[in-house]
Amino acid sequence: MLELAQQILYAEVQAILKASEQLDEDFVKIATKIANIKGNLIIIGVGKSAIIGKKMSASFASCGVKSFFIHAAELMHGDLGNIDSNDICILISFSGKSEEVLKIIPFLQDRQCTLFSISQNNSPLANFCQANINTNCNEAIKDIPAPTSSTTLTLALSDALLALVVKLKDFKINDFAKNHPGGSLGKRYYEKVADLMHTTNLPLATTSINIKDAILIMSKCSFGCVVLCNNDELVGFFSDGDLRRAMQEEDFSFEKKALFYASTNPKCIDKNALAHDAFKKMKENKISVLCVVENKKVIGLLKLLDE
């Protein structure tokens, strides 16, 4: 039984790999049109394709493209009023022969909207549309024609199309965050450094402090560092790593100035920066504490553990 499950997964993977090799300029054409859309991106389908279409529409909407899904049957009962000449309609049908989808095409053409399809090449649906994304594949379960590889492939193709549109629109993480203000996803991409930074019991010291006193501050404040300032302006950053390296030197003395061993060009960030960007910066530079500054003055610290 396990072998059968593995065969199904392999078949669906193969369908995606084959499709990746057969992508043509129609794919880029569709992505470019969506990136420059003036109206709405409307996804239309029936059955299992409708389920994929809903996810596709939701993904595009989350990335800055005004989009919604309409069931093909509902278009014949008033939902055509949602569509005009500025819109792009993507019709999904694996076979390209779905009656509910085909019979609405003349009415969509009357609206003079742009028509694209996700279907098998040379299918009736594909031939009616201005460009098509090919979904030619064999379903994974050989005994019955249940939608398996076809729906997986359609979903993967829609994700690839989304990626191209995001690239063409130069859609950034800040833009993405504006559409996801709620939940853990929103928290991760919308919270700012000011929301998470520590502002009390900061390990601040003057540039004249010696290593012995710096260790006392480091222990008391539990940040694993001492921030060296001159009139509150950031000058240096003395970490526990700096301390360990200093103690390995032959002329080490606890009476020496901490600034002698400190980083005099420490990494810092503005309080209004996204917390996501701050944590990314910390990981890239392999640091666990980041100074938050305003007009060169230290106003807080951000710890990697706060992520």
UniProtKB/TrEMBL annotation:
Coiled coil: none annotated. Residues 197-253 form the CBS domain. PROSITE patterns: CBS, SIS. InterPro entries: CBS_dom (IPR000644), CBS_dom_sf (IPR046342), GutQ/KpsF_isomerases (IPR050986), KdsD/KpsF-type (IPR004800), SIS_dom (IPR001347), SIS_dom_sf (IPR046348). GO terms for molecular function: isomerase activity. Pfam families: CBS, SIS. It comes from the Bacteria. Keywords: CBS domain, Isomerase. Residues 30-171 form the SIS domain. Belongs to the SIS family. GutQ/KpsF subfamily. This is KpsF/GutQ family sugar-phosphate isomerase.
